[in-house]
């Protein structure tokens, strides 16, 4: 459902248009309320907000756009990946970004904070996961900055100078790591191997042929209880990886649980393939979610992959 409102100004005729899709109106109202909390008044009597099938700019697909003109005009792509299957927070981030253009006159800004996180919601790159319901302090900062670009850098954005070791494991034959392969079409085998970087074992996954798909994988994992990790601190996951004739991809990742829900899910973007000796790879989580009580670290082989991968010298650090 779309709401229409035509208003005429006094004196010189000036038509104002309020045409907002009902679902998008929820986020417009939230935007106005967040502005009000911060002492900013946002008039919404002249705005168009609508869904569209596609936004293509210079040959690149985007999830939304703000179209300049006498009436601010926001379009949001109502696809599965952009809208239908994403979270409420990701919808908010997308709409708030476009309203930042349309109603605040903000332009793209790709600068970063001291710890490497994006400085603003007005970045030109991927917006998904910029903050979540598990990172309220992070959300507060990004909204403060959206309505006031002169917002000071928060304390959690400073470079971390302290570190504690949550895990250091050079892998023994009696390892407490668990191997996981639930896909019947994957011919992957996990084993404790005598090939190692540090004596005397590693964890390996072997796939004689690429029988699975890119959406499937098998992996070694460990659950680590966390005594105290403050929101805004960092996690660093280091592991040494050897590959033998890997055609496809190996990767590592971190999941975290806050309460009874997954509050963090991130994995490496390295191109770990081919044949190479043990090389260290890392994942750095720049902002930990609140109320974190356990961390899952995993080391994986994609389903559409053949060859053997070895994992050794696993380390998990908490930086604060």
What would you note in describing this structure?
There is one protein chain. Helix content is 16%, strand content 42%. It is of the alpha+beta class and 320 residues long. It has two domains: 156 residues; 157 residues, Galactose-binding domain-like (Jelly Rolls, Sandwich). The N terminus is likely disordered. Strands 8, 9, 10, 11, 12, 13, 14, 15, 16 and 17 form a ten-stranded antiparallel β-sheet that branches.
What's a concise summary of this model?
By secondary structure, the chain is an alpha+beta fold. Helix content is 16%, strand content 42%.
Question: Any chance you could write out the topology, listing elements then pairs?
Answer:
Elements: E1 2-8, E2 15-21, H1 22-37, E3 47-52, E4 55-57, E5 60-62, E6 64-67, E7 73-77, H2 80-84, H3 88-104, H4 136-147, E8 163-169, E9 178-180, E10 189-193, E11 202-207, E12 217-225, E13 234-258, E14 261-267, E15 272-285, E16 292-302, E17 306-319
Parallel strand pairs: 2-3, 3-7
Antiparallel strand pairs: 1-2, 4-5, 6-7, 8-17, 9-12, 10-11, 11-17, 12-16, 13-14, 13-15, 13-16, 13-17
Number of domains: 2
Mean pLDDT: 94
- Total number of helices: 4
CATH architectural category of the largest domain = Sandwich
Radius of gyration: 24 Å
Shape: elongated
The strand count comes to 17
The CATH H-level homologous superfamily of the largest domain: Galactose-binding domain-like
Structural class: alpha+beta
Query: What is the CA–CA distance across the termini?
Result: 48 Å
The residue ranges in which pLDDT falls below 50 over 5 or more consecutive positions are 1-11
| Helical content (DSSP H or I, runs of 4+) | 10-25%
Portion of residues in beta strands equals: 35-45%
Order of helices and strands: EEHEEEEEHHHEEEEEEEEEE
Top-tier CATH class of the largest domain: Mainly Beta
Indicate the CATH topology of the largest domain.
Jelly Rolls
Most strands sheet: 10 strands, antiparallel
